[in-house]
Amino acid sequence: MEAVPRMPMIWLDLKEAGEFAFNAAVKKSAVNVPRDFEGCSTLRKYFGQLHYLQSRIPMGAEQEAAVPITWTEIFSGKTVTHEDIKYEQACILYNLGALHSMLGAIDKRVSEECAAGAFTYLRDHFPHSYSVDMSHQILNLNINLMLGQAQECLLEKSMLDNRKSFLVARISAQVVDYYKEACRALENSETASLLGKIQKDWKKLVQMKIYYFAAVAHLHMGKQAEEQQKFGERVIYFQSALDKLNEAIKLAKGQPETVQEALRFTMDVIGGKYNSAKKDNDFIYHEAVPALDTLQSVKGAPLVKALPVNPTDPAVTGPDIFAKLVPMAAHEASSLYSEEKAKLLRDVMAKIEAKNEVLDQFMDSMQLDPETVDNLEMYDHIPPILMEKCAALSVRPDTVKNLVQSMQVLSGVFTDVEASLKEIRDLLEEDEAEERKLQELLGKVPPPQGSPPSSSVSSSSPGLVEVSKECSKYMEVHEKASFTNTELHKAMNLHIGNLRLLSGPLEQVRAALPSPTLTEDDKQVLQNLKRILAKVQEMRDQRTSLEQQLREMIQKDDITTSLVTTDRSEMKKLFEEQLKKYDQIKVYLEQNLAAQENILKALTDANVKYAAVRKALAEVEHKWNTTVQTLVASYEAYEDLMKKSQEGKDFYTDLEGKAAKLLEKARAACQAAEANRQQILEREMKKQPPPRPTAPKPTLQKKPPELEATGLDTGDLPPPLGSLELPE
């Protein structure tokens, strides 16, 4: 896998700046930065100086020195204006992350940790109402995309460095985890509406990568099993890797050639590994192949981090050019309070993320979708694909009739050909029998059955030999075609009933489809499970809402005015008092997190009771799908059956004509052979010496032994031969 072609990465466009009543030269250098790391440095310096500026001059929303600031929104192209210097900071921070994403997508594949760090700082420290492209949902999406792509870079390096298989598997599994989070964001209806057209393209690429890197993870788990000589585990991991890669290939339709090349390369690697492992296990090791779900899941190793952004780091921002404007005491105190708020948010988010991880893993293991947990509505309707086939047959009412008639005609021609060939064979056998009788009568050693008699006394003609050869050839062709004809009739019998069903009333089609039969207890189990699943979703929604409320409170919490009038010695006390405003929402979040354990326990119990119902529903669904596929296959087989039936008729019609001609030829040849035998018999009899005269006896004349063997009556012989009598 070291030489696998690289997958493409997603990068973000930079926002375009508009009006801002600031020094033109400074503004120009900050918004028209080069697309390289020097540009990143310029953006960081400008962001830091804006931070110093806004801490001294009242340029925030609704403040005395606020001026209009305009930027273009990425997705819609509309200009958005706010009279708030934090809007300028937010847009610069967004561009910093976007520029890092752009640099991370180039061939060198540098780390994208800074991109994720910029978006994380933007999400946690600025309002999300400035513009759509800086909403909480979009920023979360960007963070997970950047972390996933950074982890992907690390995975490439790990494979090039030949790191241990288990570590590579964990790194790849973490790529999958990050992309799953990004995919959840992309599937959110609100996010999709914000992104517009690019949502589908990103979602397709991310979904494909989820399966691709899951395949890479299981490939390396298989390699680890190989290193540990666990040959059964090796087979199942490689098989799983192959299955996931096939899913990635399905999802890669429409992706660029670089993706297809990477998939082909990986298929060669995984396919070769799987075939070799399976062959070795089947013929050498004979180890039992365990089920994949019995093996320990691969836990991701998050080895990349969103590096924090520090707007006051002089190593990044350079010297504070506004240092002499305002004393730094209030700014320093505000920064300390901001850090206290950030610490509170980090503590709360750590708990939320831990619970969310447990919840996600639990739900993934359950494989329960609230929308399709019973899927009973599916059985109330004929699926659209079957409706389409029924509609197509409704305008062709003679479909079944035409197929049956076509097969009947084919059967008739087939029978005629078989009868003609049988008659030819019977004529040849009869002629051969007569020839043998003649040879025995004449005292000749009969030739082996099927061989032509001696030319000296043989009555066989070259015509019969030719007929025999042609008959053998036709019989061989007929026997081969007979097998095809039989298979064609089997196929017709297989599909004719289904075609009749599809041509009939829709009620009959609906009745032919399987449907589940649930008891009242089964229905109660289903209702209980759906109720608890709804509770899980309610818990998720409430948790997300509380988290959003907390973030908004922190964003709006500005105590700068209070800090200016507070003595430095009282700062700690002021912070404690101000932070109490978050106690209530923290209590609500704690209650929400604590409820998870009880809800999941109830869901576990409900799922145990649901197991039997789930199995029954799965079986019915399988039968339903099989029935639908069978009916569709019968419809699609119709044209092929008609075509092959016509080909069969054409073939046997041609063979029938040839067999009929050969039959006439056989009859003529047999008649000629019979006449020839009569001539030979007469000739041979004339060569016999005449018998000595004897007195007539009153008894009937005894047949000669030669005629006794043939069964011929002397009256059937020519007159001279009929009056002869064999010697005593």
TrEMBL record:
<dbReference type="InterPro" id="IPR038499">
    <property type="entry name" value="BRO1_sf"/>
</dbReference>
<dbReference type="InterPro" id="IPR025304">
    <property type="entry name" value="ALIX_V_dom"/>
</dbReference>
<dbReference type="InterPro" id="IPR004328">
    <property type="entry name" value="BRO1_dom"/>
</dbReference>
<dbReference type="GO" id="GO:0043328">
    <property type="term" value="P:protein transport to vacuole involved in ubiquitin-dependent protein catabolic process via the multivesicular body sorting pathway"/>
</dbReference>
<dbReference type="GO" id="GO:0032456">
    <property type="term" value="P:endocytic recycling"/>
</dbReference>
<feature type="domain" description="BRO1">
    <location>
        <begin position="27"/>
        <end position="359"/>
    </location>
</feature>
<feature type="region of interest" description="Disordered">
    <location>
        <begin position="443"/>
        <end position="463"/>
    </location>
</feature>
<keyword id="KW-0963">Cytoplasm</keyword>
<dbReference type="GO" id="GO:0005768">
    <property type="term" value="C:endosome"/>
</dbReference>
<feature type="compositionally biased region" description="Low complexity">
    <location>
        <begin position="452"/>
        <end position="463"/>
    </location>
</feature>
<feature type="region of interest" description="Disordered">
    <location>
        <begin position="674"/>
        <end position="728"/>
    </location>
</feature>
<dbReference type="GO" id="GO:0045022">
    <property type="term" value="P:early endosome to late endosome transport"/>
</dbReference>
<keyword id="KW-0175">Coiled coil</keyword>
<dbReference type="Pfam" id="PF03097">
    <property type="entry name" value="BRO1"/>
</dbReference>
<keyword id="KW-0967">Endosome</keyword>
<protein>
    <submittedName>
        <fullName>PTN23 phosphatase</fullName>
    </submittedName>
</protein>
<dbReference type="Pfam" id="PF13949">
    <property type="entry name" value="ALIX_LYPXL_bnd"/>
</dbReference>
<feature type="coiled-coil region">
    <location>
        <begin position="529"/>
        <end position="556"/>
    </location>
</feature>
